[in-house]
Amino acid sequence: MSALLPLVQWLSPAFPTGAYAYSHGLETVIAQGVVRDSSSLRAWLVGVLEHGAGWQDAVLLARVLAGEDPARLDDLARALAPSAERLEETLAQGAALARTLSGMGHPLPPRPLPVVLGQAARPLGLPPETVISLYLQSFAGNLCTIGVRHIPLGQTEGQALLATLAPLITALAERAARATLEDLGAATLAADLAAMTHETLSVRIFRT
User: Fold this and answer.
1) DSSP line for 169-180
2) Which residues of the chain have pLDDT under 50?
3) Residue 74's pLDDT is what?
4) CA separation (Å) from 156 to 37, 39, 161, 164?
5) Is 183 helix (H, G, I), strand (E, B) or coil?
């Protein structure tokens, strides 16, 4: 249990990674009316988790936990970012995580978020499935919060939506823990285009 608590702290919304500033393109589709209620938000999140950045980050995180070279995975994570804002999102949050952990006595270089987290979490000795599932829960939780604030949804409806994602998150974490880099890939063109379109929105609340 003592090894789990640091990970929960690092992935808490209160930890200063600035995750609340990034919508992962969700702001675009809310503005367009594509995501407008709980069911459409859930469909969007399922796609991103299962076929987009959720899956890719999960595999990268798993490979860092397995001991693969973080510098190589850093390069790969950057190459996988499909747009400037997606690259900014993973780099800025990873740098913030590394900076805060370094200030707490765990020096780490700034790298994409799943790579930094993997480096930090590996010494904890937790099962990879646990680390990956909590990472995906945090990722999905942040996007649910954006939906609650800007669709808007009620707090209870937002939390109920997040709870329905638990089986998917668990299954993805188990798959990713066994995956290799050959299993990387994405098929979320709509989400990628939303992230690109966000760069030119006339009114923007979020950085991505």
Assistant:
1) HHHHHHHHHH--
2) none
3) 98
4) 13, 14, 9, 13
5) helix
201 neighbors 27 (Cβ within 8 angstroms): yes
CA-closest candidate to residue 58, choices 161, 175, 189: 175
> Residues 6 or more apart from 136 whose CB is under 8 A from it?
49, 54, 57, 58, 169, 172, 173
Q: How many angstroms separate the CA atoms of 200 and 17, rounded?
A: 24
Is the previous residue joined to 112 through a cis bond, with omega within 30 degrees of 0?
no
Candidates 84, 94, 93, 47; CA nearest to 188 is 47
pLDDT for position 167 = 98
pTM: 0.97
Q: What is the DSSP letter of 185?
A: -
Q: What is the pLDDT of residue 181?
A: 96
User: Which distant-in-sequence residues (6+ apart) come within 8 Å of 107 by Cβ?
Assistant: 101
What the block records as the tokens of 109 is: 């270089």
CA-based nearest residue to 191, from 92, 56, 66: 56
* Span 89-112, pLDDT tens digits: 999 999 999 999 999 999 999 999
Dump the DSSP string for 100-152: HHHHTT-------HHHHHHHHHGGGT--HHHHHHHHHHHHHHHHHHHHHHHTT
The amino acid that residue 143 corresponds to is L
Residues 6 and 1: their CA atoms lie apart, in Å, by 10
Domains identified in the chain and CATH numbers = 25-198 (1.10.4190.10)
